[in-house]
């Protein structure tokens, strides 16, 4: 004979099972009676389909990629990113032997024929679609619109960006003035002030600074003597620059610490992933500007 306790347990268990099934009935129904939706093959060519050949920036390899762009209701959408079969890094594979990698596709192969083949590409490269459509992707220049660290930004035009990078600008919300490259380009400022050979002036300043640093490294030189030498240095160059309407502060980062160099050193180029050709270009630009601060990233 079933006890009252056992009967109550059975009723409670049955009720709980009923509640569970009722809550997940739609899920259970889809499992028991699955439905199938057929999708047509992607359009590979024809009206509304075009291909863009470019390079992947997912890593430092710079693989060649082929991007299929299709038009839906007047809007272009990236359908797929795959390896460029013409590119030496990717080498094409055939549809029937996808585990085999062949040589680079002959450049004489017609593009329409190449669409039947694809080049190999890693998962990160294929996922470049999400880089393009990431909601946090920055596609317009942003300018700070509040105190530093406030996290407030506003969009500006490319023309304004170039102008303020070169000539400097003001944070309208705070009144903070930011210098531009023109202000940091000491060679140009000396030239505009009337010095015929700015390079000679900068070389003379560096020579005096090197002598000061040698004195500073000499343990036999007392602090009072070093301070006197520093004051003489500042007086000499303040007078020389003042004759052309400039201040020592217009040339040096910090006149009390002349070893920091000229204000051109306030330009710091910190590159991310880079290639040799870009490195040569940017290094020459930074060096010609007068800065020693061309730096690589590390990881």
TrEMBL record:
The keyword Cell cycle does not apply. The chain crosses the membrane at residues 7-25. The keyword Transmembrane helix applies. SMART domains: Molybdop_Fe4S4. It holds the Pfam family Molybdop_Fe4S4. GO terms for molecular function: 4 iron, 4 sulfur cluster binding; metal ion binding; oxidoreductase activity. It comes from the Archaea. Residues 49-136 form the 4Fe-4S Mo/W bis-MGD-type domain. Gene3D superfamilies: 3.40.50.740, ADC-like domains. Keywords: 4Fe-4S, Coiled coil, Iron, Iron-sulfur, Membrane, Metal-binding, Molybdenum, Oxidoreductase, Signal, Transmembrane, Transmembrane helix. Residues 209-236 form a coiled coil. SUPFAM superfamilies: Formate dehydrogenase/DMSO reductase, domains 1-3 (SSF53706). InterPro entries: Mopterin_OxRdtase_4Fe-4S_dom, Prok_Mopterin_Oxidored. PANTHER family: TETRATHIONATE REDUCTASE SUBUNIT A (PTHR43742:SF9), TRIMETHYLAMINE-N-OXIDE REDUCTASE (PTHR43742). This is Tetrathionate reductase subunit A. It comes from Caldiarchaeum subterraneum.
């Amino acid at each position: 004979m079933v006890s009252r306790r056992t009967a109550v347990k059975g009723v409670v268990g049955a009720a709980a099972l009923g509640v569970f099934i009722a809550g997940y009935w739609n899920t259970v129904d889809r499992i028991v009676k699955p439905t199938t939706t057929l999708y047509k093959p992607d359009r590979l060519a024809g009206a509304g389909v075009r291909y863009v050949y470019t390079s992947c920036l997912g890593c430092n390899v710079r693989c060649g990629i082929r991007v299929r762009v299709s038009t839906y209701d007047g809007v272009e959408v990236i359908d797929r990113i795959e390896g460029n079969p013409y590119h030496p890094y990717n080498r094409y594979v055939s549809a029937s032997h996808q585990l085999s990698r062949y040589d680079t596709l002959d450049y004489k192969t017609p593009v329409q024929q190449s669409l039947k083949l694809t080049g190999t590409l890693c998962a990160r490269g294929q996922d470049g679609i999400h880089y393009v459509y990431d909601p946090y992707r920055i596609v317009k220049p942003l300018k700070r619109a509040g105190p530093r660290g406030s996290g407030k930004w506003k969009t500006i035009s490319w023309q304004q960006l170039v102008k303020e990078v070169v000539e400097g600008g003001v944070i309208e919300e705070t009144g903070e003035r930011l210098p531009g490259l023109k202000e940091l380009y000491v060679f140009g400022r000396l030239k505009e002030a009337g010095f015929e050979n700015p390079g000679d002036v900068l070389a003379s300043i560096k020579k005096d600074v090197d002598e000061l640093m040698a004195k500073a490294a000499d343990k036999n030189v007392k602090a009072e003597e070093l301070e006197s030498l520093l004051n003489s240095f500042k007086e000499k160059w303040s007078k020389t620059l003042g004759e052309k309407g400039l201040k020592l502060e217009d040339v040096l980062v910090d006149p009390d610490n002349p070893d920091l160099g000229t204000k051109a050193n306030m330009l710091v180029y910190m590159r991310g992933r880079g290639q040799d050709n870009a490195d040569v270009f940017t290094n020459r630009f930074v060096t010609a500007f007068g800065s020693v601060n061309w730096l690589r990233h590390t990881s």
